[in-house]
Design a protein that fits this description.
The chain is of the alpha+beta class. The protein folds into two domains: 131 residues, Ribosomal Protein L22, Chain A; 106 residues, no CATH class. The protein is built from nine helices and ten strands. It starts with 15 loop residues before the first helix and ends with a helix.
Amino acid sequence: MLTPLPETPESLSISASLTDFLISCTPEKQIGVTTIDTDHLVNGAVSELAAACLNEQEMRQFNTYTFEKRRWQWLVGRVCAKKSVLKLLADTGTSQELTLSDIAIGVAPTGRPFLSSTPAEAARPVPDISISHSGRLVIALAAHGYCGIDIQLLTDTLFKVKSRYCSEQEHTLLDAAVGDELTQLGLLWVAKEAVRKCFSSFETIGFLGMELTGIEQSGSCSLLELRLAPGCGGVESVTVAASAEDQYCLGACIVPGEAERARAA
């Protein structure tokens, strides 16, 4: 049973087509996704939320941040990830009563968050998590298998850095498939960032280490096929589901856990 929490409204409407695609990528056919609007937390709710959701070690980490924006981004990311894990466990039929503070999140040397402690009987195999924030929104994904999620507010910055992540060939593919140029660039950005996060526990992939080879519509979301450079855990390509929602682009992918084992072999 969850400890009562300060209000954490989920304000982003996530495409059902995107959710359905992610679910189809997992053997268990379950995922957990949570979004929180941080605009609702900046007036006195941050400390209250931390006390309700963090364990002692996490609270010590939280207290090292002095810049207020960084404090609530870090905190809300943890809350999103923990709530996503609980959603995933509930969907898999776990009946054990858990609170958010029962779930501990650590940080790998690469900077990737991971579940460092979860009641063993409640989570086998241990879920993977991914966290992203942009603008006022924070989002997290929990799944069995490697996962990556990214959210990006659509701003002109995407035009300024276009050369770093979008080739002319990729732009041609996007231009023939979806919306205006800003949305196109947003979809490609979140797709590539989602893949980077998905593989970051065992591979470092740059934007030039993946190439958009195809895009198709699936309901209200776009499926972007990205070919990966050789050596990415034995995986040659990844399909990312991406959508544009309320001035944001959102992209996510899930890759079976066998990827790292294939790399080791």
